Amino acid sequence: MERHILVVFPHPDDESFGVSGTLALYAEQGVPITYACLTLGEMGRNMGIPPFANRETLPSIRKKELEDACRVIGIGDLRLLGFRDKTVEFEDEELLADRIHAIIAETNPSLIITFYPGYSVHPDHDACGAAVIRAVERIPSEKRPVVHCVAFAKNCEKEIGKPDIVRNVSAVIDKKIAAIKAHRSQTEGLMKAAAKYGGDAIARFKTERFWIYTW
Amino acid sequence: MQPIRIEEVQKALNRFANQDVYLHLETTNGAYASHHNEGFFAAGAYIRNGRIRFSRAKIAGNGPYRVGLKLDLGWVYAEGLTDWEVTDKGQLLLAGHDYEGKLAVALQLSDEPF
Ligand SMILES: [Zn+2]
Predict the structure, then answer these.
(1) Residue B35: inside a domain
(2) Which Gene3D superfamilies does this entry report, sorted A to Z (chain B) (predicted)?
C-alpha cells in the first residue's frame, strides 16, 4: 500500500484522461492523494459546445471543473501552482523544480505520478515531467520515491519500450467517466462523440499505462 | 533570413531583456486560405510596435521553434518559428515559413519603433 501519492501535471483534465482510474482505486483504499496542477489550461481552444466560456472566463471555469473532478476521483489535496498554460517550458527550470521539491518535502509521497519527459507530446507535459525528475534528483537516490510516468508520443514504445504497468481500471470506470465529464468545457463534444461510436472509444479508458522512471 | 540556430537566437533574445522594447508579433494563414480550401477557417492577428518589457526569454523546440517572453504581468508566445536575422539596426527578426515558404508567423524585437 502506498503511503501518499503526489500527482504532478500541467493541465486540468490531464489527471482525468490519463490516471483517474488508478487514482480512484488508490483513493478507495484510503491512500491520501495530493495533485499539483501547474496551470489552469488558460490557453485551451475548447470553449464548450455551444461555447459557454471565453478566453477570459476559461481559467475560473476550468478551476471549478478541476475541483469537481478531484472530488469524483477522491483527490483530497489540490494545489494550483499558478503557472500559465503553454509557458511551462519557458520558465526557469530550477524555480519549477523548487516548487515541486517543496511539495515533495512536505507530503513525503511514496509514489509520484507525472508525464514522461520527452514522450508526452505537449511541450507543457514534457517540461512538467522534466521538472519533476529534476526535483526528485535532488533527493539522495536511496530515499527517492518511485516515479510512474505517463507517455503517449507515437514513438514512445519504440524508444522507451512497453509500459511497465498496464492497469485495468474497469472497477472504477464510472468514476473515471464522471471525472472526464467534469471537465465539461473541454470534453463535452468528445464524450458525446464517444457515446455515439460506443464500444472502442470507452474501452480505451479502461486501461492505464505507466513507465517506471529509472535513473 | 537564415535557419534558426538556437544558441545564437537565445543570445540575441537575452540582449532585449529588462528594458523597454518594441514588439511586432504576427500570425496569419494568408488572406486566401479559405478561398483555396473551403473547409479551412482562416484566422490571424498582429500587434505592431507594442512596447513591452520582459524579464526572461527562451527559445525551445527542435525546429520549428517556440519562443516565450515573460512579462511582468503576462507572456508573449509564438510557435512555428524557422528563420532569423539581426538587421543592421540591431532588430531581431524571427519568422516561421510554411512548407511553401510563405510567412506564417513573425516575432520581432527592436530598441526603436519599427
Ligand atoms: Zn495536458
Answers:
(1) yes
(2) Hypothetical protein YojF
